[in-house]
């Protein structure tokens, strides 16, 4: 669509000149004069872009410009004489020093005489060179450019309307929308008239030759400043561009400061995913329950949810507003839910270990200690035909949650009927992820810490003989841990060393253990349970000593212990090595033969020792998940018979899932043979 101009001005008739220019420093430190031939290349390109916009729409950017005009028969003839538009620039520093007194940049057109026009045209070789001169010297304020862009968007909306006009040979100025004669109107009246036509475009009316009265807006002196700090004085007509800008601000108001907001922003929440089948346990009667699945879409027929322990990957989705059913958990987990999420006690049912709890009239659950973090439980779900007949269950499930298997847990399920399904914690189900027993880690770690401090005391005694600097007498062991868990290692070390344990992050741990005092006792080993981030490097340890313990590092001997099962992984075998079915059977059979060989190497701590460091930090393969060998012993213990085993961890990789399923088939064959031999 060919856009028509409100005022017919040829490109070659327009010149821009600046009344005054300012010297501003550039990036290279050289001061350049804006609005002159010394503008930079970037300014020239920007001016060209602005100039094309002005010529495309031919929209004046001032309400009442000063014009010298010749009148022939009452009609302004702008086709003969070139026009020079003068542009007032505001002082750059003045504009930034007082934002509330900003004045709009105005352009003042000036009509030259015919002789001046002819001389200018003769000096130029062609129209393109004239435009290049104009583009180099044009400087338009950012506010003017914004108004022009907004007006462009308004004009784009009328492209679907057919606007055909006869060639304007007589110099008559008509409205591009309604074809009304605008020749006798002032410039601001023409703009106001066209703005009124634009506002009426949304109405179902046909635009013919019917005239639309021009409108103006008057703002009184006592009106408040707008958002940009611009005050419009009384009896000043607002241009159409100004009206568009004000309308845009009304429709899209600026966000208020955060401190003044009374209403919270409502985020668009994504729909929750459906419950995966691994989270749902289904009984013969059709009744269904969920274990560790709180972050999924609710099911109409499910109202009983079990939380095995208080770790984020299991309780994710739980919060105060969660209302999908009743949460079943241990007493410690219940206390933590109420403390962290303010979960109402009415939505929690506490399960005591080794006691039967009836979920329905025919379905019960017996929880056992999972040997994991505090409050963790392993569940035995049973379905009966009648409460009074508990000898022959119809359906049985074992859900381990996260657990560290041992002989005690295996004994809990001895001589019961066949287990239909075992939901197994498969965190370390890989033959490359094997590590020593918990008691082995605790014994070796405690013994090494005691011996280390004895050797330090002997070295300090020799040091005092020839040095005036006092040797440190206080001893500190920093044991890293998660928000919940790993407490057992710290407490066991305290028992072996006959000392007390201090807990740094006491917010949640105070609900189930004594957090102690952080003061250091001379001549005694002090154990602190700290976040793993404290043991990141020497700087974080120094910060902990300064801010929490309030002691100089020169006055204390520090040992750091980072417990993680991954420390022991991939030591002798490649992680990518896949065993055949026969090899898996051989490895599974040797798991019982090598049961007493899960020992920590004697040089485990010595090879990590570095005397050049301020603090000694050791990684120990302590985990609260079952090692690979412990998983084999649990599945092939022969104490109970199971029909199906399902993995609850590491299900993202299809190859890994197939490999675990093959391990389960091998274990089932071994366990069935053992179980049958024990019951002959």
TrEMBL record:
Keyword Nucleus assigned: yes
SUPFAM superfamilies, A to Z: Metallo-hydrolase/oxidoreductase (SSF56281)
Stretches the record annotates as Disordered: 104-127, 248-270
InterPro entries recorded: DRMBL, RibonucZ/Hydroxyglut_hydro
Protein localization: Nucleus
Keywords: DNA damage, DNA repair, Nucleus
CDD domains tied to this protein: SNM1A-1C-like_MBL-fold
UniProt record, GO biological process: double-strand break repair via nonhomologous end joining; interstrand cross-link repair
GO molecular function: 5'-3' DNA exonuclease activity; damaged DNA binding
Domain DNA repair metallo-beta-lactamase, chain residue ranges per copy: 524-652
Gene Ontology CC: nucleus
Family: Belongs to the DNA repair metallo-beta-lactamase (DRMBL) family.
UniProt name for this protein: DNA repair metallo-beta-lactamase domain-containing protein
